[in-house]
Amino acid sequence: MKNKLSDRINNLPVSATLAMAAKARELKNNGIDIIGLSLGEPDFNTPDFIKNAAIQAVNDNYNSYTPVDGYSELKQSICNKFKRDNGLNYQPSQIVVSNGAKQSIANVVQVLVNPGDDVLLVAPYWVSYSAIVTLAEGNPIEIRSDISSDFKITPLQLENAITKRTKLVVINSPNNPSGSIYTEKEYLALAKVLEKYPEIYILSDEIYEHINYGIPHFSFAKITSMYNRTITVNGVAKAFAMTGWRIGYLGAPNWIAKACTKMQGQITSGANCIAQRATIAALDAPVSEIQYMIDEFKERRGLIIELLGGIEGIKLNQPKGAFYIFPDISSFFGKTLKGKKINNASEFAIYLLEEAHVATVTGDAFGSPNNIRISYAASKEEIKKAIARISKALAD
Ligand code: GLU
Predict the structure, then answer these.
(1) Separation between Cα atoms, residue 325 and residue 174, nearest integer Å
(2) How far is the CA of 198 from the centre of ligand 1 (A)?
(3) Ligand 1: does its nearest atom lie under 6 Å from the Cβ of 176?
(4) What is the residue with the minimal CA distance to atom 4 of ligand 1?
(5) Does ligand 1 come within 6 angstroms of the Cβ of 248?
(6) Ligand 1 neighbourhood includes 22 CB (under 6 angstroms)
(7) Ligand 1 centroid to residue 29 C-alpha, Å
(8) pLDDT the model gives residue 2
(9) Cis, bond preceding 124 (omega within 30 deg of 0)
(10) Does 31 lie in the same domain as 125?
(11) What's the CA-to-centroid distance between 339 and ligand 1, angstroms?
(12) How far is the CA of 17 from the centre of ligand 1 (A)?
């Protein structure tokens, strides 16, 4: 039968992270012992104090539609969080709560980007940015970085990528997939460039803020000259082990927040009422409540660096945050392993899945064709087992 779907959906790539997770799940269901290191999802339970707030909300009959932009108490908690953790002053009218940070990002792109506008993406970047821009008929423009610069760009690279068509720059620190973190000094240098181009907006994705192993987190909107042009996106999924609860939020200039609410009002309305109440408990709690998870991720980072570092041909950076490592595996391109020729990162990731039964994600999806992403949001036992299998599969 003829494909009757729109060009929009026919041309949309499938999310590589979700596709790999689905493939791993399918193989697992077929009885194959797959170790899933593809998805960026904490393996902890949601902390009890958050679960209890959700139970309380059910018992208190929070069951109606919420305001599209979120409960006012939650928006106040978000303002308090922005002030406490980031030194940012937002009023509740500048806050929009969404169905995950992914929706916050999609809202911003939809309300700012016109067909033909350029959106600058700092590669490696999270897989969905470019698809979200394409859906808005914008042009995703990559600014490339690699392991030699710890996956960070210079002010000159930013300047060289800017054209008359540039509308938005998407930045993400700590970064998914590289784990790199921009220091305050580095962000100030990028802001110096952007000061010359007042028509450009900045979307700062800070979802990994708390998964940080030592470099102080710095919010781009903290730079006075950038505040009125920056949209700060965050959420509870990663820091509070709440991926499935689907609560993200943004702080933005009033007119952008208002437009995001209008957009969301036509597509999904307010986010889930129980999850919103639980998020108030999460954000009101001191950050020390989640330190045990960050400590554990840090230990796992050390473990995976040590184990992967022992495999010849794999080049590593030291991730400073998030729970991913993004090795350069290009030295394997052109080689034949166990009778299979590896030409690129996608074939490398498929090879690991088939030969080692370890699910990772190809760097192509992140705009970085020499790498693969490995999530270490898994137990130490799983990490050890996975890297031992990878090591064996890569041995001559
Ligand atoms: N953001 C996570 C990841 O990169 C979850 C999956 C997704 O939405 O892409 O793995």
Answers:
(1) 12
(2) 32
(3) yes
(4) 40
(5) no
(6) no
(7) 21
(8) 79
(9) yes
(10) no
(11) 32
(12) 6
* Ligand 1 lined by 39 (C-beta under 6 Å): yes
Q: Residue 141 maps to which CATH number?
A: 3.40.640.10
Which residue is it, tokens 């990731």? 349
Ligand 1 atom with least separation from CA of 126:
4
Residue 55 domain-assigned (yes or no): no
Query: What is the identity of the amino acid at 298?
Result: K
For the chain, how many structural domains are there in total? 2
Spans of the chain, pLDDT less than 70 = none
Does 153 map to a domain? yes
Domain span at residue 216 reads 62-285
| In a shared domain, residues 191 and 329 | no
First-to-final CA distance of the chain = 46
Q: Is residue 124 in contact with ligand 1, taking CB distance under 6 Å? A: no
Query: Rounded to 5 degrees, what angle do the CA atoms 255, 85, 282 make?
Result: 90
**Which phi and psi (to 5°) does residue 139 adopt?**
-105, 115
Q: Do 29 and 76 sit in the same domain of this protein?
A: no
Kindly give the number of the ligand 1 atom that is closest to the alpha carbon of 207: 1
DSSP string, 333-355: TT-EETTEE--SHHHHHHHIIII
The best mutation among 38, 41, 104, 368 to test binding of ligand 1, ranked by most ligand atoms within 8 Å of the C-beta, falls on 41
Q: Which atom of ligand 1 is nearest to the CA of 102?
A: 8
Ligand 1 in reach of 15 Cβ (< 6 A)? yes
Q: Is residue 57 part of a domain?
A: no
Q: Is residue 40 part of a domain?
A: yes
- Residue-level pLDDT at 21: 87
* Final residue before a domain boundary, out of 221, 252, 285: 285
Is the same domain home to 274 and 294?
Answer: no
Same domain assignment for residues 299 and 281 = no
The CATH number for 365's domain is: 3.90.1150.10
Does residue 120 share a domain with residue 34?
Answer: no
CA 267–ligand 1 middle distance (angstroms): 21
The reply to whether 212 and 342 lie within a common domain is no
| Long-range residue pairs from 147-150, CB within 8 A, at least 24 positions apart, any chain | 147/315, 147/316, 147/317, 147/326, 147/328, 147/370, 147/371, 150/178, 150/180, 150/317
CA dihedral 94, 100, 104, 105 (to 10 degrees): 150
